[in-house]
Specification:
about 150 residues, single chain, mainly alpha
């Protein structure tokens, strides 16, 4: 008997609470519509921002990967005679290889410089400049990487 009474009281409390919400919603219909509308707009904006950021990150990673492939690609003179030609790009000279890599990394740095991948690209661009014996440019880029702020 006691359990049934407790259950009935809980059911009555829930019904009472639900009834109050329905009455409040009916008297504040316009405010609810505006609130729901604002919520939907904010949710859509958040979704669009998330999509944009993930798309931008994917583009940055793809551009960095392309530049890194050039940086790590073999030079034709480094391939042993009689060996199969490796898959991917093979450069005629080391200078061509590092110029291509530096340009690729600098493009990533220009477009995505504020991101982690932009910072990493700046470092690799400096390494490519060192290979090209452009020490002043490489030193400048490396100093910018370690500078505070």
């Amino acid at each position: 008997m006691k359990k049934e009474l407790k259950r009935e009281i809980k059911e009555n409390e829930f019904a009472s609470w639900l009834e109050k919400i329905i009455i409040w919603g009916g008297s504040h219909r316009d405010e609810l519509r505006i609130g729901i509308g604002v919520g939907v707009v904010l949710l859509a904006a958040f979704g669009a921002l998330t999509y944009f950021q993930s798309h931008r990150t994917a583009e940055a990673e793809r551009a960095f990967r392309d530049a890194l492939e050039a940086f790590e690609a073999p030079v034709a003179s480094e391939i042993p005679t009689g060996a199969d030609r490796p898959a991917g790009q093979v450069f005629a000279t080391a200078e061509d290889k590092y110029k291509t890599a530096a340009a690729g990394f600098e493009g990533v740095t220009r477009r995505y410089g504020s991101s982690d991948i932009g910072t990493r690209a700046k470092y690799y661009a400096a390494l490519a400049r060192i290979e090209l014996e452009q020490y002043a440019e490489a030193e400048k880029a490396l100093r910018e990487l370690v500078a505070p702020g």
